[in-house]
Write a structure and sequence with these properties.
Elements: H1 2-20, E1 41-49, E2 51-54, E3 72-74, E4 78-84, E5 87-92, E6 97-102, E7 107-110, E8 122-124, E9 130-134, E10 139-143, E11 149-154, E12 162-168, E13 173-178, E14 183-187, E15 195-197, E16 208-212, E17 215-220, E18 225-230, E19 235-239, E20 247-252, E21 258-262, E22 267-272, E23 275-281, H2 282-285, E24 290-296, E25 299-304, E26 309-317
Parallel strand pairs: 2-7
Antiparallel strand pairs: 1-26, 2-3, 4-5, 5-6, 6-7, 8-9, 9-10, 10-11, 12-13, 13-14, 14-15, 16-17, 17-18, 18-19, 20-21, 21-22, 22-23, 24-25, 25-26
Amino acid sequence: MTLLHGLTRATGIGLVLAVLAGCVALPPAARVPYEPPRGPVVLGPWRTLIGGFLAPPGTGFGLPARPGTGAFVKLMAPTALALRGNDLLIVDSAAGRVWRADLGLNTLTPIAGAPATPATAVALGPDLSAWVLDGVSRQVLRFARDGRLMQTWRGGMAAPSPVAFTLADGGATLLVADDSLRQWVEFRPVGAFPMPVPPGDAVRSVDGIAAAGDKVFVLDRNAGLVHVAQRDGQLVGRLGAGELKQPVAVAADRFARVFVVDAQDRSVKLLAAGRPAQVFDAAALRVQAIGGIAVDERLLAVSDRQTGQVVIHTLGSEARP
């Protein structure tokens, strides 16, 4: 009995150590996939990021990040954001820096060579590589987690004035929006020749772009709405008509929830087909001047270019009686 008890205890300890080491997969019941709210969305608990401790660039994908060893750096005027898991990209246009923030370690790592202006757009790939739009040089840059410049894409004559971009097909396809030609350019697979996709005469301007599944969401500031298009450019719907006043940025998550920054009434509007827009004003978002947004699963990040901070909200569902 003593031997059996000792074996059972040793086995239990070994199992715990194996789980902590990542050698044993947790049972399926422990991994609950996130399901978005079916009804109205409410902003849950939040956290505020005002800066972080300087840290050197991380190592390759899959390895732990390094803790901060330098001084605490405060954000100045954060604008565009990208969020994936524990990683947050922040464009601080006042400081002229693109930062990679680790939300768990509270660190900031500068991405050397990445442009940081009010027009800079960013995204995070599935491998946590940083994608940065350099509108002045008309190119999109991709940086590894260790800070190396991995790839550069140029649309050439197909995208002479890039203003936004998004990743599709699990990061295998790059879509670059061009406002001068009112179209987007598709690089599929990434690294191939650019393929222009004109969405038709109904689109008056192409000022922002987001993708979810086989749908592309095109921000049209002149028309004051978001066009819903197929990947081949065929329009299949519109969102926000009569509800958007001065839309300036669009973001979407994998559940095709579309978030738009409306500069006129200082709000973020959640758009869904067949339902009125849900409005989160600056007070509810706990910011003063919205600089940019990013959404990932159950989190909505909003930058405040006036107070120099990023507020990260949890997205929940409205309680039902």
